Amino acid sequence: MLNDKNKSLIKIGGLISVFMLVLGIVLCTAGYSMENNIEYLKTDQHQWYRIVYVNEDDELHFGISFDQVGVLGDIEIPLD
């Protein structure tokens, strides 16, 4: 049987796994877009979800949203 200590370890492990997955997606998206001169982040197939994206003013941003509905804050990433 699972006791409270094991349940909390499973929860912590799950949170760490989700964090690592999100971090991997962010880094892969950023790396892929930088390899392709940021143009990938402006394409339509990328617009249904946004993690690292270029806004209307051609500024690189970090923020999680799905179908233009924000889930996590919008942070500008300086390119200089």
Which percent range describes the beta-strand content? 15-25%
- Derived from helix and strand composition plus strand pairing, the structural class reads alpha+beta
Largest sheet: 4 strands, antiparallel
- Round the Cα radius of gyration to an integer and report it: 16 Å
Structure description:
The protein is α+β, with helices and mostly antiparallel strands. The protein has one domain. Helix content is 40%, strand content 21%. It is built from one helix and four strands, in the order αββββ. It has one helix at 4-35, and strands at residues 49-54, 60-66, 69-70, 75-76. Strands 1, 2, 3 and 4 form a four-stranded antiparallel β-sheet that branches. A hairpin with a 5-residue loop joins strand 1 and strand 2 (60-66). It is elongated. The chain starts with a helix and ends with a strand. The mean pLDDT is 70.
Which properties best describe this structure?
transmembrane helix, transmembrane, membrane, four-stranded antiparallel β-sheet, single chain, 80 residues, 40% helix, alpha+beta
